[in-house]
Amino acid sequence: MKILVINCGSSSIKYRVFQGKKVKCLNTLAKGAVLGLGSPDATLSLQSPGHNFIQKLDRPDHDRGLGAIMALLIHKKQGVIQDPSQIDLVGHRTVHGGDRFTHAVFVDQEVIKGMEKYIPLAPVHNPANLAGIRLTKKLIPNALHVAVFDTAFHQTMPPQAYMYGLPHSLYENQGIRKYGFHGTSCRYVAAQAARLTGQDAARNKLIICHLGNGVTVAAVKNGCSVDTSMGMSPLEGAMMGTRCGDLDPGVVLYLQREMNLTLGQVEKMLNQESGLLGVSGHSNDMEKIIARAQNGDNRSRIALEMFIYRLKKYIGAYAAAMGGIDLLVFTGGMGENSPLIRQRVLSGMEFLGLDLDLSRNQGAGAQDCLLNSDSSSADVALIHTNEELMIARETLSLAMDCSDKKKGIK
Fold this sequence. Notes:
Elements: E1 2-8, E2 12-22, E3 25-35, E4 42-48, E5 51-57, H1 62-73, E6 89-94, E7 105-106, H2 109-117, H3 126-139, E8 144-149, H4 159-162, H5 168-174, H6 183-197, E9 205-211, E10 215-221, E11 224-228, H7 249-257, H8 263-272, H9 275-280, H10 286-294, H11 298-322, E12 327-331, H12 332-337, H13 339-346, H14 358-363, E13 369-370, E14 379-382, H15 387-404
Parallel strand pairs: 1-6, 6-8, 9-12, 12-14
Antiparallel strand pairs: 1-2, 2-3, 3-4, 4-5, 7-8, 9-10, 10-11, 13-14
């Protein structure tokens, strides 16, 4: 059984090919990405046993990008399959499934229509996800295609966590509520955390800090998401690379009323020109911000302090909401690779039982590991997320269920 996982974003297409017949025993045959869609400096890469291939592409769109990926996968020298028909299953990372899609589903026209309905809630992500689905179904028509939704994991949140203080009709008629994102990453990390610590996932209080260009802090109690920082859209929550995070709605009204900004201009500002980039004035790259802050750049220092401060507030809030914390997990690009961010976030958090071992934190590398001191009453872990593997597992699991029920998997 060969499974292709596609993560189709607005500016990149990431992919991975797995092989295996059991959900817990999937091996990676190849992985890679098209980075910089629409750019003259776009690149196509593939890594597989014995090969590490990269080439430039000139301003590819999603169509050309996916075509280039498929051509590379069947290439006689670098490829790992002989023909697209060897792909049995395709798992698609899909960002917004609203409250309709609470688990992975086979992609058909009704599912596509459902995803189209949620485009206004995720205007940056869902169109790109849909483009990837439509194009890949044309390239690999005989495979079963599965959509795995980022929002699905958070569908266990109770109403007091996902409702907004708005007229109830907006929830009933428009679906305006908190949905949360990075759910596929959170599901994977929660399972890995249970294995790493030996704790029963159904009996613990876990806070996950997924720190990438997008940031999610999630509260997971007894194996279920009970709250998460992102909201109806990926704008809410902690400050991020280019997104503002939590914001007084009055600011949006002011920008439109007093500065005469259009809705499109405000949307672009909040999504692409804010966060670390907006505050620092030069970058959304945390490494660059840290370097400039250490060299005396005041705006970089403020951006760093804001980022840390807001994470601390979410951790404290979720510990209060769950009545304590058993484990705090760092994951995502920054969470996995920045000892300084982990140290600064946990500084002063001993009152929650979170006591970081500085040498373990500094020496953490490619392996999942515990970072807390031996005297810490709660665990602190570094876990490398693997959304593609989680998508492959959910895709195969759905296909196996379908097969067991004799519903036509070939």
